[in-house]
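Subject: mismatched residue count in predicted assembly?

I count 527 residues in my input, but I want to confirm that the predicted structure covers every chain. Input:
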Amino acid sequence: MKTDVLVIGGGPAGLSAALSAAKEGAKVIIAERDNLGGILNQCIHSGFGLRYFGEELTGPEYASRFVRKVAAEKNISIIKGSVICADKNRCCEIATESGYESISAGAVVIATGCRERPAGTLNIAGGHPAGIFTAGTAQRLINIDGLCVGKKIVILGSGDIGLIMARRFTLEGAKVEAVLEAMPTPGGLNRNIAQCLKDFNIPLRLSTTVVEVLGQKRVEGVVTAQVDENIRPIKGTEQTIPCDTLILSVGLIPENDLFGFLTLDRRTKGPFTDNLGQCEVSGYFACGNALHVHDLVDNVTYESENAGKNAALFALGKLRSENSVKVNCGNSIASVVPQFIKEGSPSVIYIRVKKKIKNAMLFAARPDGTIIKSIKRLAFAPNETISLELPALSGISYDNIIIDASGEA
Amino acid sequence: MKKMEFTCIVCPRGCQLNAEEIDGAIQVSGNSCARGKEYGVSELLNPVRNATFNMRIEGSSKKIVAVKTTQPMPVSSILEIAKKIKRVKLKAPLKEGDIVCEDTLGIRLMVTSDISIG
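Triage response: the counts match. Full output below for your records.
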């Protein structure tokens, strides 16, 4: 089978990429192993779409707006199946319910989302009792399958999903004993600390982790300890919290296992891309959580529309090749996406800072120090992605720009 | 005289707001936009939230559907409504946008996805 654009994944990134590729006149196939809408189907809380639609929607509502558009678009077809391998020449193999399918695509959009960091990566002492779940798995069991996961809950990690699950467990009638965070600052957005924890008097304990899980058949409790500045448990600070469930919200990892031929940015764990969404290997484009972990689905949509459009232009032979510059991280910056900028097109740079900076200025500068663009804020914190819009660069006489921030610690 | 410090939840930016009642008027500071000011006033006088709940369904292969409040509701009554909702079952089919529970629970809740029969 041949197509202009193959989009791998039918979540928010894949749907938006497919729609904007079809708008350019390309024939598009979306490969999705589960239901269209992806992770949004289980994110039943509201707060989506404030930027893109100017209204507050739940996850399923945000998804259905795109699913309906995709269904009405004759240039898009859906294959229900898992892409099991992909090569540099854009040949992909898909395992479907009716057998095995080979697709040769003019361009491929990676929209595979991310995975949760699992329990095995944490080195927590104890056996393997039932009752340990990642936050997203618990969310699926509760919000899709309608199952009760536990009654007395401890959540490790204060990422947004962990905070949102603290509230969900509470509304489902379970008791959340505490949310623990090993870092000295919370991982999720401040608004989620406010509306998910404070509203329901759920305690948040910072610089605290789980050192042991108690129980043989089912979790019976966890032993917590405070940690020092190197995140090492401090002896003598151990406390036991009786509980039947431990929820882990300890990080997300972009899903790029299929694409071994792409080098990943060790900071974002996603592939290197330019401002057109293009990867280093010709004809591959990436967007959404497979590229870098987002805190807002609205930004996923914008990013994916850009990648989808350029994938279509590439497949149709209309994408011009331009000079590019590298985007370097300054000392205060943890990561930037994209890592390259092509001349002639505007870009949105997604930036994370390493530490909280107050009365801060974030800027993009040329190697000679000339500021291209800057934004000022009261504070920038590591738990938010900052977007910096840059105008199209032209007549470039330098090979890199630097992103950095200045201000008070 | 009321005085409170809290995080604005209107948008992901999460500004730290101060709201204070001075001579019957409410002063909000720390906000970066007009919606933040509105939120500050509301949060000081009567904190309200949009909430979503899972409800059981009969007559579909799907077991539950998510419903959301059509108007922000008082924070203090969210848990009570969550408990009451557990005892109610909806019947398939349902359409995104359907209003349910208005008669039984006295609260307008909107279905957030289509649920077909079978």
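Helices of chain B lie at 34-45, 78-85. Marking this ticket as 'not a bug'.
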